[in-house]
């Protein structure tokens, strides 16, 4: 039976003036709407107790399984307001499928795609006034997540799990706007390894990336690119985004999915759109030598990162302890064409010919 999410309204919602103040300058992940979607799973009863209720803390016992064994997953997608006031989601089915894939890897229960979509839709509907206008690339960021909520100390899959969706008005992920960022490259640290959880969207991967991320900050970089740490012969992804390279002959290259790289929804969208923009796509192994030598010799002319939060962000240089490889200042024709193509679909500025957008309000 499909889940329904009956509404219990927040008795103390933010005032219209408070919401307007937030939407004027939301930042990213700083503010949250008045409500959240919640459902509970148990081994005996399956999914139950689904509802939309006031946003607020969970009660987690000190022996709650997620605190000790990290059994949790999450997703990220956005709701976009179009010029006519309607609100749409971008490829929510892809996020729902990836949540199922992550759940299988982390021994969490599967949530049906339609139940995922209903939770997101009902939350966006009740908090629709929190969705910003499109100006400045603003949107409502949605964070579905699932965590082990059983009280026990023992290494096994939890028999009680909580699923929730929260929402946060957001501006651009990088406060500086659309300009090339510098990337720190590490082969000392890994966000995930072969046979591990790299293809699942779970918090442990992000926690593992933080030490390299902060090393990058110390060298003036905004993000970190991981080289596979054991063989040191394979470019993987950034701490929270996929990476693409553009060659002088019009080829768009991204590392192949090997089980250690997250299959990004934006990544998939870029690969689909690239052909229409005159680019040939390749998903394959990229070595560090190919990356650095290609930049130095002019074969690689652009690079960018992509993800739900950051969309498409141009890369200005790659840095290591040995030096810097700076990309040419060529106006970023391929990067910006791809970026604009995705944003035009998301914000309804062009026709959606692929059925990627789902109207919710």
From TrEMBL:
<feature type="modified residue" description="N6-(pyridoxal phosphate)lysine">
    <location>
        <position position="201"/>
    </location>
</feature>
<keyword id="KW-0032">Aminotransferase</keyword>
<dbReference type="InterPro" id="IPR033939">
    <property type="entry name" value="BCAT_family"/>
</dbReference>
<comment type="similarity">
    <text>Belongs to the class-IV pyridoxal-phosphate-dependent aminotransferase family.</text>
</comment>
<dbReference type="GO" id="GO:0009097">
    <property type="term" value="P:isoleucine biosynthetic process"/>
</dbReference>
<keyword id="KW-0100">Branched-chain amino acid biosynthesis</keyword>
<dbReference type="Pfam" id="PF01063">
    <property type="entry name" value="Aminotran_4"/>
</dbReference>
<keyword id="KW-0663">Pyridoxal phosphate</keyword>
<protein>
    <recommendedName>
        <fullName>Branched-chain-amino-acid aminotransferase</fullName>
        <ecNumber>2.6.1.42</ecNumber>
    </recommendedName>
</protein>
<dbReference type="InterPro" id="IPR005786">
    <property type="entry name" value="B_amino_transII"/>
</dbReference>
<dbReference type="GO" id="GO:0052654">
    <property type="term" value="F:L-leucine-2-oxoglutarate transaminase activity"/>
</dbReference>
<dbReference type="InterPro" id="IPR018300">
    <property type="entry name" value="Aminotrans_IV_CS"/>
</dbReference>
<dbReference type="InterPro" id="IPR043132">
    <property type="entry name" value="BCAT-like_C"/>
</dbReference>
<comment type="pathway">
    <text>Amino-acid biosynthesis; L-isoleucine biosynthesis; L-isoleucine from 2-oxobutanoate: step 4/4.</text>
</comment>
<keyword id="KW-0028">Amino-acid biosynthesis</keyword>
<dbReference type="GO" id="GO:0009099">
    <property type="term" value="P:L-valine biosynthetic process"/>
</dbReference>
<dbReference type="GO" id="GO:0052655">
    <property type="term" value="F:L-valine-2-oxoglutarate transaminase activity"/>
</dbReference>
<keyword id="KW-0808">Transferase</keyword>
<dbReference type="GO" id="GO:0009098">
    <property type="term" value="P:L-leucine biosynthetic process"/>
</dbReference>
<dbReference type="InterPro" id="IPR043131">
    <property type="entry name" value="BCAT-like_N"/>
</dbReference>
<dbReference type="InterPro" id="IPR036038">
    <property type="entry name" value="Aminotransferase-like"/>
</dbReference>
<dbReference type="GO" id="GO:0052656">
    <property type="term" value="F:L-isoleucine-2-oxoglutarate transaminase activity"/>
</dbReference>
<dbReference type="InterPro" id="IPR001544">
    <property type="entry name" value="Aminotrans_IV"/>
</dbReference>
<comment type="pathway">
    <text>Amino-acid biosynthesis; L-leucine biosynthesis; L-leucine from 3-methyl-2-oxobutanoate: step 4/4.</text>
</comment>
